[in-house]
Amino acid sequence: MTTPLQVRTISTAEHLEWIRSRSSVSFLQTPAWAAVKPDWRAESIGWFDGDRLVGAGLVLFRPVPRIERFLAYLPEGPDLDWREIDLDAALTPMVAHLKKAKAFAIRMGPPIVSRAWDAPTVKAGIADDALRTLNDLPADHNDAEALAVADGLAARGWRPVPTEGGFSAGQPRYNFQLPLAHDDGTPRTEDEVLKGMNQQWRRNIKKAAKAGVEVTQGGRDELTEFHRVYSETAERDHFTPRPLSYFTTMWDALTGEDPERMSLYLAHHEGDLVAATTLVRVGTHAWYSYGASTTEKRDVRGSNAVQWRMMRDALASGATVYDLRGITDTLDSDDSHVGLVQFKVGTGGRAVEYLGEWDLPISRLLYRGFTAYLGRR
Hints:
This protein is of the alpha+beta class. It folds into 2 domains: 124 residues, 3-Layer(aba) Sandwich (Aminopeptidase); 208 residues, 3-Layer(aba) Sandwich (Aminopeptidase), CATH 3.40.630. It contains 12 helices and 16 strands. The strands form 2 sheets. Strands 7-6-15-9-14-13-12-11-10 form a 9-stranded mixed sheet. Strand 11 and strand 12 form a beta hairpin. The longest helix has 15 residues.
């Protein structure tokens, strides 16, 4: 039998040292992310094989009203060598540690891609009226080891969190990613990335350049301008915007941990701000996190221009993945969400499916109440 690992609290310095030793870790698993979620209590935990740190995670604790019990949540984590590690050796001590911290349930999202569909495959799927979701479409890439992890979690009592269209109450199961490196690890060139895009994307990038759209990086003071355009986007696209304070807190926390962790990009046309985006980077992984554009001057294609600048900067920084974050699993041309899928498919990347989020009930009574509460929201 494999000897269980030890799980215990680690310091912020130890956690950051672990992150720096990895090619990449989700930004939701950095110590700084705790400051972005002030309603949650946070703890960094480490997995030890003797004195050697072999894994780390950020745990966010959400209290149950009126009783001292918590949901322990590891968004897009923990960071372990999931394909190699023994599940019992890793999970048993984690559960014991979080149970002592009065967790009534644990939710985690192992950062493992199980399937992927290349852009031409997704495009063909959308054009096929017989297909409705990515599940109806054979994947171009299947990871048997990732699927074995899912089977192992289910066998140990973990439950997959239900999703609707690929989205759950936590992090998206489906994302769209643009590889910035070849399969052998060598970087792609800017020309290679550009040639991989569809004709519409290339045309829009050229149109923005011809119209004189200028993309620059901004700082904390420019977050106000970003938020103005972001609020306009929210009203136009019918979603509830986050307050400006959320973005200033995120900026202060992430750049305080690493000055290059978060960047702000602003696209101007003749002095008018027409699009703005934020980029987050940890190691070799860069994420497009938030984006906004004005209703006026959409024809100058500021959104394409700012995305292209972020892709080029990510490539220059040594990133191997440019992550456009969540999509739904729809292939239905009548679905209102398919437009976002098509926009991201135009970059020439791939749709990826993660293992999704998994729950382990510790107190079944409290867990049932918790899931019932979420169902009423």
